[in-house]
């Protein structure tokens, strides 16, 4: 799959959700194999950056099987956390994991709950959350300016957006390794382990169709986010962005 095909697929969120639904049963195992288990450490770093204060709520968008959602609940026991995703099979697994981790409730009214919704249209009031997080999911959103503007709306003034995502590394060893691992090895692993080579061919193609770390920071700024910074992880293959909504709440931009 080339980046144009990935962009066309990404333009149909329900098709993307269906694709992730097909691989839900092997999603966690594939994440571990693809990152040599480093994805857990990276999610913890993202949770630290969320910096939820007493009484703050957290929203984890594109939450998949809920690993970052649950990490937020563990790290901030004073906060209620919501995981949001369009794939119901992923959310089913997330709810089960939250119950096993003793941070969720069977009736979905616990401190952690999961909702099926589109990140472009989060079904929450203005300024409802102290931090919004995303781990390995926003590159699947077809309209990033619209999504970043919508997320700005539901973040309280002074709150944060924390984004952990695969990115194209700068020129050098990291980029060469990225090309070898994600373009060649990951699709093969997807066929062998997840039984879905197409889904794991989409992954490297979606990264090629996604802005690099500096470009993503620029889109965040255009949507009204400020104090934007990012760091590269894993030989530059992953970027962790942190952005803040101004305390005045008056810098919002983009399209809602």
Describe the structure.
The protein contains ten helices and seven strands. The chain has a seven-stranded mixed β-sheet with strand order 3-2-1-4-5-7-6, with helices on both faces. By secondary structure, it is α/β, with parallel strands linked by helices. The mean pLDDT is 89. The protein has one domain: Vaccinia Virus protein VP39 (Rossmann fold, 3-Layer(aba) Sandwich), CATH 3.40.50. A hairpin with a 4-residue loop joins strand 6 and strand 7. Helices cover 47% and strands 19% of the residues. It starts with a helix and ends in a 12-residue tail after the last strand.
Explain the layout of strands and helices.
Layout: H1 3-10, H2 13-22, H3 24-35, H4 38-50, E1 58-61, H5 67-75, E2 81-85, H6 88-100, E3 112-116, E4 129-135, H7 144-154, E5 155-166, H8 173-194, H9 197-208, H10 213-222, E6 226-233, E7 238-244
Parallel strand pairs: 1-2, 1-4, 2-3, 4-5
Antiparallel strand pairs: 5-7, 6-7
Search tags:
7 strands, 256 residues, seven-stranded mixed β-sheet, alpha/beta, Rossmann fold
Quick summary:
The protein has 256 residues and is α/β, with parallel strands linked by helices. Helix content is 47%, strand content 19%. The protein is built from ten helices and seven strands.
Going by helix content, strand content and strand pairing, the class is alpha/beta
Give the N-to-C terminal Cα separation. Answer: 31 Å
Return the string of H and E elements. HHHHEHEHEEHEHHHEE
Instruction: Report the top-level CATH class.
Output: Alpha Beta
Q: Supply the CATH superfamily name.
A: Vaccinia Virus protein VP39
Largest sheet entry: 7 strands, mixed
CATH topology: Rossmann fold
């Amino acid at each position: 799959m080339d980046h144009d095909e990935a962009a066309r697929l990404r333009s149909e969120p329900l098709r993307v959700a269906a694709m992730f639904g097909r691989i839900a049963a092997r999603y966690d195992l594939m994440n571990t194999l693809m990152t040599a288990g480093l994805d857990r450490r990276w999610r913890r770093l993202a949770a630290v950056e969320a910096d939820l204060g007493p009484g703050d709520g957290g929203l984890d968008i594109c939450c998949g099987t809920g690993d970052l959602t649950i990490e937020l609940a563990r790290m901030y026991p004073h906060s209620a956390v919501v995981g949001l995703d369009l794939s119901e099979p992923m959310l089913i697994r997330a709810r089960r994991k939250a119950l096993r981790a003793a941070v969720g409730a069977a009736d979905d009214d616990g401190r952690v709950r999961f909702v099926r919704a589109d990140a472009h249209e989060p079904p929450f009031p203005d300024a409802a959350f102290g931090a919004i997080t995303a781990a390995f999911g926003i590159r699947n959103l077809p309209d990033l300016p619209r999504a970043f503007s919508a997320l700005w709306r539901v973040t309280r003034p002074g709150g944060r957006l924390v984004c952990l995502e695969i990115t194209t590394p700068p020129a050098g060893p990291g980029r060469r390794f990225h090309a070898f691992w994600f373009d060649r090895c990951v699709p093969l692993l997807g066929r062998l382990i997840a039984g879905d080579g197409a889904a794991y061919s989409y992954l490297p193609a979606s990264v090629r169709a996604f802005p690099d770390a500096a470009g993503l920071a620029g889109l965040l700024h255009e949507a009204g986010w400020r104090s934007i910074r990012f760091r590269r992880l894993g030989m530059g293959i992953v970027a962790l962005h942190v952005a803040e909504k101004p305390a005045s709440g008056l810098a919002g931009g983009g399209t809602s």
